[in-house]
Design a protein that fits this description.
Elements (H helix, E strand, L loop, with lengths): L4 H19 L9 H8 L3 H13 L3 E3 L5 E3 L1 H9 L2 H18 L2 E8 L2 E8 L15 E2 L4 H7 L4 H8 L14 H14 L2 E4 L6 E10 L2 E10 L3 H28 L1
Helix pairs in contact: 1-3, 2-3, 5-9
Length: about 250
């Protein structure tokens, strides 16, 4: 049975849209329309029409002529695929936030970007409230460093490239220094971000290895009170990590 012409055309449009999304998967900084067209071997005018349609659905973001990147709707879809983990993790994040007085987030990596799956926001007047609709940068965040530390140096270099983007004056942009930092994370199990992602914001993170994948648990703090609370926050975070892993293991074996 032959496929009707209109149906073939619809399938082709979907395939081309998917090709654009895959092309941008590991490009946190985005690509120009010309670069996308070259990579997927389509006319620039066709890419422009598809990008405009995908941007209307928030599957892509258009950031001027030099940047088309994955959009917030994809992040929301991704978070639903981790629903079981987020449901189990929620009470632990909320308790850690109450105990620490700070914002706590659960993160997951998608290619070279980091997604916020869940957060428990501090109730203090001065607090950090991350933008859940934004992608974070792996090499600039404690959660990203935790997840990168699970990879070999070769794999990290292949994923990030040798030129690391600077987000603040404190962002680690030297690849050898980043690899040395990741070696320290492997030894201690804890990663730090001192205003690497955003000025005035510091964080620490640990990994959570579950049967659904690997996640990062992070405490996010205004920098002005981070150093004084670092030891206490780290202890509370590690206790929460231990409790969460025990609960996940128990649920898996039951």
């Amino acid at each position: 049975m032959s496929v009707p012409e209109t149906e073939r055309g619809s399938i082709q449009v979907i395939a081309r849209a998917a090709a654009i999304l895959r092309c941008l998967e590991n490009e946190p900084g985005g690509l120009s329309l010309g670069a996308i067209a070259k990579r997927i071997d389509l006319p620039r005018s066709t890419v422009q029409r598809l990008v405009d349609a995908l941007a209307q659905e928030q599957l892509l973001e258009i950031q001027g002529p030099a940047g088309v990147r994955l959009g917030p709707a994809l992040m929301r879809l991704a978070s639903h695929s981790h629903l079981d983990v987020t449901q189990k993790a929620r009470p632990y994040l909320e308790q850690l936030s109450r105990d620490s007085g700070e914002t706590v987030v659960l993160l997951h990596a998608s290619g070279a970007e980091l997604l916020i799956l869940l957060m428990a926001v501090s109730t203090q007047p001065l607090r950090v409230v991350p933008d859940a609709s934004s992608f974070l940068t792996l090499h600039a965040t404690s959660g990203g460093k935790v997840l990168l530390a699970r990879m070999s140096d070769e794999a990290v270099t292949q994923l990030l490239g040798k030129k690391l983007k600077s987000l603040t004056p404190n962002t680690q942009t030297n690849l050898p220094d980043l690899l040395a930092e990741l070696a320290q994370v492997r030894r201690t199990g804890v990663a730090y971000d001192i205003e690497g992602q955003m000025p005035g914001v510091s964080a620490m993170g640990v990994e959570l290895v579950t049967d659904q994948g690997v996640y990062a648990l992070c405490v996010v703090v205004p920098s002005m009170r981070f150093e004084a609370a670092r030891e206490r926050l780290c202890e509370q975070m590690l206790l929460t990590q231990k409790a969460m892993l025990a609960a996940f293991d128990s649920a898996q074996s039951s």
